[in-house]
Design brief:
alpha+beta; Alpha-Beta Plaits; 2 domains; two-stranded antiparallel sheet; elongated; disordered N terminus; membrane
């Protein structure tokens, strides 16, 4: 299970959690013309089926709007039947996505792979950017220790700002009122010096 806190260095997994859905957002380099959406979808589905033995039903949708490609992978626990991809199997959609991203970036983990070579009707699909959005079945736990320390830090900053603001207001009011008192005293002194009629 993923942790939301970066301070957890134990690297232990208390519970395996399936990741679904996964949205892969790709942007291809400018081509002479836009690809045919149905040809592009067929090629990407073939790629997932042949390269990573991923059942076609897990590729929920492929959307194409020049130059952006969105691939949605969906694999719920309720969809699992005998012979399907299991969490311990290497072809889980999260694993497929991980290896796919590495291949797109040209950082393949397998020897002999230089990157992803996809051709749509003979024209190469050159990808320049990839973003992957993951959603787990169960939300990752939030450790309250870090949340509490962050909340305390915010409260301390607010209190210090309030005290500083009040202090500045009090000092400026004293200076203003001190000047007025001196002026009033001078006026009273001048009135006493003048002869009365």
């Amino acid at each position: 299970m993923r942790r939301t806190d970066k301070g957890d260095l134990s690297l232990r997994c208390d519970e395996l959690v399936r990741t679904h859905p996964i949205l892969i957002d790709l942007r291809h380099r400018p081509a002479a013309r836009a690809f045919n959406p149905s040809d592009l979808e067929a090629e990407l589905r073939r790629l997932f089926r042949e390269r990573d033995p991923l059942h076609p039903k897990f590729v929920a949708a492929v959307h194409y709007e020049h130059p952006t490609i969105q691939i949605e992978l969906q694999q719920n626990t309720s969809q699992k039947v005998a012979g399907d991809v299991d969490i311990a199997d290497a072809a889980d959609i999260a694993d497929v996505t991980y290896y796919f991203e590495r291949d797109v970036k040209g950082e393949s983990l397998f020897s002999g792979h230089r990157g992803l070579d996809v051709r749509v009707r003979g024209e190469p699909l050159l990808l320049e950017r990839t973003l992957i959005y993951l959603l787990d079945e169960k939300f990752p736990p939030v450790l309250h220790e870090r949340l509490t320390s962050g909340l305390i830090a915010v409260i301390v900053v607010v209190v210090v700002a309030l005290v500083a603001g009040v202090t500045v207001l009090v000092i400026t009011n004293r200076r203003k009122s001190g000047k007025y008192k001196k002026v009033e005293m001078k006026e009273l002194g001048e009135m006493r010096k003048e002869p009365s009629l």
